[in-house]
């Protein structure tokens, strides 16, 4: 009875609806008095977790119900249980389960072909298979948001240690324990692919663990992501290695202690942009041997920082991701002994490939070079660098700008570059345009976004305010630019707050309130850009209190760039003493009474702002460098402006110097304008501490005087004072006008001709050049590049020989690398980190004129190369240089493999795969010369014929055995060569195998090996994939 009840309950949990009323007699209502209630008899047991069927499972089961009915009938008819016959109606059986002992007949019954098909489809269609655990990860959920800190090359990847943690938790769930109480060992963990986490949406991981062997698979989107083996050790302490703390010689002068900031700056340069809990390395030495990790009760981030630690100390700067772990031991009880806010010692035993920290030991990590994300590059901008006056109107129009209809675009470009340069280094600009009732095709916003975002790493957040916002929003090109649209009237309220730039068209003829509201939308130091008619009066500008910064004319229109005046103003929160006179102007808030009154502070003492410090630079000497460094350092702490001045020199690097200073720490520091004497007086005479809210300003300014007729620089001179009042970063005086140097787009026929001439000038012949693919994997991007040997000095390379290359053949490795089919990390040593890895061998002449051939690690496709004399040979007189260029790699490979490593002797037998290849022909030639019996494989009849012609000693297995007692050529397309070799050697096998085949053919080649034979593997596929060698 209990077995049947349990079976029915399992059917119910699977999503079906058994008719439980058939299990008892019919109840007559109302029930008798005193009948006990059912509810108190039911208690919830939460000790076991059950996988709940989804709607798709239920729908699928109902769909199959009619077809499964025949199976249910057969089960009922064959059940001989007395209780079933008397009390259970056959209609309750809507599903069957072979897992129940009561249904053992079902597993033994022979099912029809249709029934087997139904079962198979049911297994495939189900959203969750038996024994499978589904884990959902959503970055939008609070518990998963920390994963966004695992940013690799600009993408959020699910951590490799996250997979291990999911498998560990799944095993703990199957064992009915908490993972914090279950020590585990994971072996032969293979990471097949990475999982890129979306910003929105759910990623589902399916984990399957086999009970008997512990083999597991973690799948995502139907494909295997991670595989390996996991088990619970009997004694976890015996699974780890007891190793002494690694030591580094104290005398090592290159040993440095790195902080967290140092470590993650270095990792960021490699492409690892970690944040949050994934910045868990607290300190380390620069060798990456000893350090400390943070333990924040998060297993994923903790183990990931151990993998990060293994990267430190490596000389390569490339981006690597883990692809294999030989063994992982996790001891949670040992980890519990650690303090949550204490640093956990971590040690890297690089010689044996082990990392130990806390209760975790990682062994045998293999990392592979990850392809860097190819950034989509826009078409190159063709520009010229020219001086442009700030006031370019009327007669002052410069000839540097075209007048062929592009004046408007160029005038707008110059104005926007001034805004960008004087926005304090902001990378995200907030911009708004007052559209009014203008049509969509007259908006400036699309051009503004295009011009500003063409600059590196600049992002524009732009809003268009007008009465036709709904119409603008329907334009697809506007929405693609990320433009926002609002219905707002600038005559009644500001467009926004803290904007860097506000744009308007024909604003001056409108009411003064419109311009005032545009100004009110700006942040301190912000700009207003107006496109107006030339005939418009500028009285409105004067009344608004704005400073005219730039005036760029474009035919009958003019672009006016206006800026909020930067003044020394302070809002004072205090009680005014008697010696201060008060008149209504500025707001003052009294913290005691809570009353706000308007006051203007007038001091009887004259207070003067700090004058800027002037540092004059010159190309004649560099004595000013130390003074400039000291002045800049003081300006950061004291908030004092610095004017970098160049006068009397027509050519100077001052513009680039100031641009570099802006990129230095503190280069774009903002400071409140401070009046030191004034501030002391306030502190001593006011009852409450003043609240200073000043205007934000940049500290560094450039003054470049290229006009020899200008007077000597003086801040009090009106020529300079008027310009400095505008508070611009770049101030260049040339040809009697103030301006700056700007990038102007080339587009006209004249400029294009100049560009073509410049390109022709750059495309010149050089003596030292090499070939490289500009884009790895794109053969069309192969280019000749001038090499570093243009500056070759023999004294600095005493152990190298400079050779001129006449011929450089294309090897199979070159083709695979250039086409992107072979990853660079498959190469030995640190070649993967080099910019050019093409070219292995060559033939040419050395500096003495000798005909030579040789090998190089890379960069052999060149006009000249530096060669180690050890790998340089003189070419025989009977060979041409073209023939000699094909010899070094294939014969060196064959000789090293067969003679040096394989110890080949006369009378041995040899199996060489791919006999018509370069290494294959060289190996056959060497072996036949030494008196070795050769077996080889080819893939076509054409290649068979070539080998028989090239090496008459070889005979074909297709010929009659009567005339060919030793048949030497077999097929390489399948494993039939195994039977052929064993037959020809009478089951003994061969003494040496030179293998380049993979997978099942590799295994067949191993079986061809005789006892005490030598197996020489020159392929990379099976070794890279960690495939087993032998059976």
Q: Structural class, please?
A: alpha/beta
* Principal-axes shape call: globular
What is the percentage of strand-forming residues? 25-35%
Uncertain regions spanning at least 5 consecutive residues: 60-130, 395-402, 567-609, 669-697, 959-965
Helix share bin: 25-40%
- Overall radius of gyration: 40 Å
Counting DSSP H or I runs of 4 or more residues, the number of helices is 28
Annotated CATH architecture of the largest domain? Roll
Please tell me the overall pLDDT. 78
What fold name stands as the CATH topology of the largest domain?
Answer: Thiol Ester Dehydrase, Chain A
Count of distinct structural domains: 6
Number of strands: 44
Q: CATH superfamily of the largest domain, called what?
A: Polyketide synthase dehydratase
The biggest sheet amounts to: 12 strands, antiparallel
Name of the CATH first level of the largest domain: Alpha Beta
Strand order of the largest sheet: 1-5-6-7-4-11-14-13-12-10-9-8
How far the N terminus sits from the C terminus, by CA atoms, comes to: 51 Å
């Amino acid at each position: 009875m209990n077995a049947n009840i349990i079976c029915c309950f399992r059917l119910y949990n699977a999503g079906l609806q058994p008719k439980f009323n058939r299990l008892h007699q019919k109840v007559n209502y109302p029930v008798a008095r005193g009948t006990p209630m059912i509810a108190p008899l039911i208690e919830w047991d939460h000790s076991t977790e059950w996988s709940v069927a989804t709607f798709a499972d239920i729908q699928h089961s109902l769909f199959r119900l009619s077809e499964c009915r025949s199976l249910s009938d057969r089960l009922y008819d064959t059940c001989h249980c007395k209780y079933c016959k008397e009390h259970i109606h056959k209609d309750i059986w809507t599903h069957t389960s072979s897992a129940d002992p009561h249904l053992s007949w079902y597993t033994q019954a022979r099912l029809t072909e249709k029934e087997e098909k139904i079962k198979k489809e049911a297994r495939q269609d189900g959203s969750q298979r038996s024994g499978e655990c589904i884990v959902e990860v959503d970055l939008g959920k609070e518990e998963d948001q920390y994963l966004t800190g695992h940013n690799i090359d600009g993408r959020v990847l699910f951590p490799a240690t996250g997979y291990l943690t999911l498998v560990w938790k799944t095993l703990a769930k199957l064992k009915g324990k908490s993972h914090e109480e279950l020590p585990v060992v994971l072996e032969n963990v293979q990471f097949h692919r990475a999982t890129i986490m979306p910003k929105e949406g759910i990623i589902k991981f399916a984990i399957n663990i086999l009970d008997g062997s512990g083999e597991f698979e973690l799948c995502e989107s139907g494909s295997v992501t991670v595989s390996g083996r996991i088990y619970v050790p009997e004694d976890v302490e015996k699974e780890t290695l007891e190793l002494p703390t690694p030591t580094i010689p104290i005398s090592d002068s290159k040993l440095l202690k790195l902080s967290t900031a140092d470590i993650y700056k270095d990792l960021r340069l490699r492409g690892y942009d970690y944040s949050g809990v994934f910045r868990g390395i607290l300190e380390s030495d620069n060798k990456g041997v000893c350090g400390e990790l943070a333990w924040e009760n998060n297993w994923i981030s903790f183990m990931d920082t151990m993998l990060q630690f293994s990267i430190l100390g490596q000389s390569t700067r490339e981006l690597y991701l883990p692809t294999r772990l030989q063994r992982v031991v996790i001891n949670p009880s040992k980890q519990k002994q650690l303090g949550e806010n204490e640093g956990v010692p971590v040690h890297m035993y690089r010689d044996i490939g082990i990392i130990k920290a806390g209760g975790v030991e990682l062994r045998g990590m293999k990392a592979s070079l990850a392809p860097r994300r190819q950034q989509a590059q826009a078409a190159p901008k063709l520009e010229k660098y020219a001086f442009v006056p700030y006031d370019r109107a009327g007669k002052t129009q410069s000839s540097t700008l075209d007048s062929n209809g592009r004046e408007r675009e160029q005038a707008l470009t110059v104005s926007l570059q001034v805004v960008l340069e004087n926005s304090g280094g902001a990378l995200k600009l907030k911009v708004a345009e007052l559209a009014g009732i203008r049509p969509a095709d007259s908006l400036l916003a699309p051009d503004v976004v295009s011009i500003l975002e063409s600059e590196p790493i600049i992002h524009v957040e732009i809003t268009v305010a007008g009465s036709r916002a709904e119409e603008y929003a329907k334009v697809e090109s506007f929405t693609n630019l990320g433009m926002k649209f609002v219905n707002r009237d600038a005559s009644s309220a500001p467009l926004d707050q803290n904007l860097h730039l506000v744009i308007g068209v024909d604003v001056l003829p409108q009411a003064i309130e419109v311009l005032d509201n545009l100004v009110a939308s700006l942040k301190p130091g912000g700009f207003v850009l107006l496109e107006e008619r030339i005939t418009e009066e500028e009285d409105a500008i004067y009344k608004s209190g704005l400073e005219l910064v730039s005036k760029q004319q474009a035919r009958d229109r003019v672009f006016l760039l206006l800026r909020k005046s930067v003044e020394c103003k302070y809002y004072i929160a205090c009680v005014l003493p008697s010696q201060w006179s008060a008149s209504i102007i500025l707001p003052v808030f009294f913290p005691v009474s809570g009353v706000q009154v308007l006051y203007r502070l007038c001091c009887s003492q004259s207070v003067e702002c700090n004058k800027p410090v002037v540092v004059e630079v010159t190309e004649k000497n560099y004595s000013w460098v130390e003074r400039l460094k000291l002045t800049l350092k003081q300006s950061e702490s004291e908030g004092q402006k610095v004017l970098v001045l160049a006068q009397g020199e027509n050519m100077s690097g001052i513009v680039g110097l100031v641009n570099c200073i802006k990129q230095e720490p503190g280069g774009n520091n903002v400071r409140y304008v401070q009046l030191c004497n004034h501030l002391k007086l306030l502190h001593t005479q006011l009852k409450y501490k003043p609240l200073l809210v000043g205007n934000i300003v940049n500290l560094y300014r450039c003054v470049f005087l290229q006009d020899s007729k200008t007077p000597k620089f003086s801040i009090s001179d009106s020529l300079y004072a008027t310009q400095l009042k505008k508070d611009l970063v770049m101030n260049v005086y040339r040809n009697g006008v103030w301006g700056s140097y700007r990038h102007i787009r080339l587009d006209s026929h004249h400029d294009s001709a100049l560009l073509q001439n410049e390109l022709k000038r750059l495309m010149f012949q050089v003596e030292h050049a090499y070939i490289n693919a500009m884009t790895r994997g794109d053969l069309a991007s192969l280019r000749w590049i001038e090499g570093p040997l243009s500056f070759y000095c023999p004294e600095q390379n005493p152990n190298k020989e400079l050779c001129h290359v006449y011929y450089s053949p294309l090897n199979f490795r070159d083709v695979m690398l250039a086409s992107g089919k072979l990853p660079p990390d498959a190469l030995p040593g640190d070649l993967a980190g080099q910019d050019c890895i093409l070219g292995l061998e060559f033939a040419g002449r050395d500096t003495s004129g000798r005909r030579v051939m040789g090998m190089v690690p890379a960069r052999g496709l060149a006009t000249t190369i530096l060669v180690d004399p050890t790998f340089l040979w003189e070419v025989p007189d009977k060979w041409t240089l073209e023939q000699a260029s094909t010899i070094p790699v294939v014969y060196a490979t064959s000789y090293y493999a067969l003679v040096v490593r394989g110890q080949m002797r006369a009378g041995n037998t040899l199996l060489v795969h791919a006999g018509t290849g370069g290494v294959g022909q060289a190996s056959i030639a060497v072996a036949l010369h030494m008196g070795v019996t050769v077996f080889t494989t080819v893939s076509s009849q054409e290649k068979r014929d070539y080998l028989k012609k090239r090496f008459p000693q070889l005979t074909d297995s297709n010929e009659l055995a009567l005339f060919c007692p030793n048949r030497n050529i077999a097929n390489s397309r399948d494993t039939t060569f195994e039977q052929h070799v064993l037959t020809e050697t009478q089951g003994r096998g061969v003494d040496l195998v030179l293998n380049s085949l993979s997978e099942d053919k590799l295994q067949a080649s191993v079986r061809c090996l005789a006892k005490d034979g030598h197996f020489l593997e020159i392929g990379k596929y099976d070794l890279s994939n960690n495939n087993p060698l032998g059976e």
